[in-house]
Amino acid sequence: MTNKPEETSSDTSRMPRALGWSAELDELAKRREFARGMGGPEGIARQKAQGKLTVRERIDLLADPSSFREFMGLMGSATYEDGTLTKFTPRASVDGFCSVNGRKVVVTGGDFTVRGGSGGGSHGGLGMEMAANRRALEWRVPYVRLLDAAGGSVRSFEDMGRTYLPDGNSFTAPDVQLLRVVPVVSAVMGSVAGLPAVNACIAHFNLMVKGTSQLFPGGPPVVKAALGYDVTKEQLGGYQMHASQSGVIDNLAESEPEAIDMVRRFLGYLPSNVWEMAPREEPGDDPCRRDERLLSVIPRDSRRAYDGHKLIRAVVDEGSFFEIAPLYGRARITGLARMNGYPVGIMANNPMFGASTDVAAGEKVIRLIRLCDTFHLPIISLADEPGFMVGLESERKGIERAGARMVITVCDSQMPWATVVVGQLYGVAGQCHHRPSGMFQRYAWPSANWGSMHIEGGVAAAYRREIEAALDPDARLAEIEARLKAMASPFRTAEATGQDIIDPRDTRRLLCEFVEEAQPILRSQLGQTATPYLP
Amino acid sequence: MTLAEGLTLPAPLSGLVLAVLVELGTDVQEGDELVIFESMKMEIPLEAPRHGRVTRILVGEGDKVAEGDAVLVIA
Q1: Which of A217, A307, B16, B45 could form a disulfide with B33 if both were Cys (CB 3.0 to 4.6 A apart)?
Q2: What ipTM is given for this predicted complex?
């Protein structure tokens, strides 16, 4: 048989086989064009007026150039006249694969220009394509949510002619599994309510944009209906609430491009999934660099505070520190960094904000340990720990239960861990800088001092009878304190236990060596951990 | 901010100004202590982030400051 191309108008020489379907290809192009128009010019203008980028602009910032491969991009609601497509509104989400710094991720971006990002109820029918969260799970690649959606809307009741049971867990279950398998990041890019607000926290890291993002299960109208008072979106769920007070959001970006940059940066420290090693970068800093300033960071006067960031910066690869939740639980600094190019988790007490671990700081510690354990990063602790926060406020917040969770998290963890005791190390909070199992290394600076509790305060309790019976109780108390303090030199401990005490300037070199030695251990621990990550 | 305009240094935390260690015109080096604050019974220094000359002092001893308040300007 001979192939006789049909006679049609255009270019028969180049692609004769496609010829028969050119009308459909035209329709495909038209539908894609409609989808690229998102919720239409009015919706886009409103989005811009609010100072926000469109979802497609955001994805352009996130993705390496021309790496975005959209899926389910033809889904939406169409209007036909005489069988011809005249109008098409895409679904309120733009999803696809893209590369971030050369590595593949799945991105799902809420499109607020389409019905305020509301779902629109067409979930779970037979033949539905695999959702973005399932793809990230099956492809084993990081999952990035660009949230700009208001959750369910009562309008959908009218469309369906009924209400529905709130069975959102049916399609949220993969999001839960993702936490144990791949890095998950939520960027809150607008007013986000309902399930998307909770999805903001089903993540290893989240952030919001100052002034243009808010987060709540129900916004001001819902608050008014339920509780009867007026409140603005910003008061209810803005950055002051969530980045500093509630701790629901880790990081705050000044602008949307900065937010996307933070997402890219965070992912850069982590492997694509728990079966891979975190990517090493070409080291740009000498692992043997000795920072002379380390000799004077810890003040001799114990009333003097210092900024714990100084310690971290002096020790990690230059410019590599990425702080997580800098405005919340500020007694502890937590974040990711590189040591001789290898990604690590790192934390330090911050005496500028009391240093004592309170419930908020403890939450950060727990999340960092679990993050490192899940993705097989070594962890470094620079300890100057006065102990758990005491007092009425701390009791009201439940410091003992928080302490129990810290102890459990520390003991359950497996990744290689190095602690450098730079100053104080007291009580159970001090105990949480130590792990009695696995690859654990501890160094102490000559400025270190430690104990099960502080000598001040401790003496009055332990020697109460002796002090009360003395002729001059104050003098007796001072005498006992002086006696005990004379024993507090770290060298006395070293005599008995073998604790290594180091020149502070050698800290970086020793930690870089530790991180290098940790690599084969980390490789042997690849895979899912027994303890799930809890945000 | 450019060198000519000067660099405004914010209070690193909320607290009380315990001591101002510099005067107008003092030349400072990176890391020099400029102001000491008191908060939670601890003394917290504000250090010069770079070298420069103190051109404005916006707080005095005993003042209460909130985090982020302008403390002084170096140019």
Answers
A1: B45
A2: 0.80
